[in-house]
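Bit of a strange request maybe. I'm writing a small parser for structure token strings and I need a real example to test against, not something I typed by hand. Could someone generate the tokens for this chain?
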Amino acid sequence: MAIEQYNGLGRRKNSVARVFLRPNGRGKITINKKPLEEYFHGLPACEAVVKQPLKETHTLSKYDFVITVRGGGTTGQAGAIRQGISRALLEVNPAFRSSLKTAGFLTRDARCKERKKPGQPKARKRFQFSKR
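Reply from user aminoacidic:
Good idea to test on real output. This should exercise your parser:
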């Protein structure tokens, strides 16, 4: 017996999140086999970012989510999960598109870390200049 589910892929910085939305749920969010609160332990801002698309579409307790996320840090992972949840919600109901689009949850945030340049300690930082 196959479980009915919808997929969404989200990316942010170096993080990639695969989101599996299961209808007829109770609002349970599982990330890498851990509950949301345990995964982002002590970071309520990241938890709020993850729940933003659900609050925007008023579907906080209608679906269950199973999420696998890899790469990056906590902020990047939270942003990737947010985009993945938004895309999965679009598969369920295309009418959510206008509200999610105006909130900016469907747009891929392309900002990444700038590469280190040769002859410098970091991307833009310079070594100390000595006149003599």
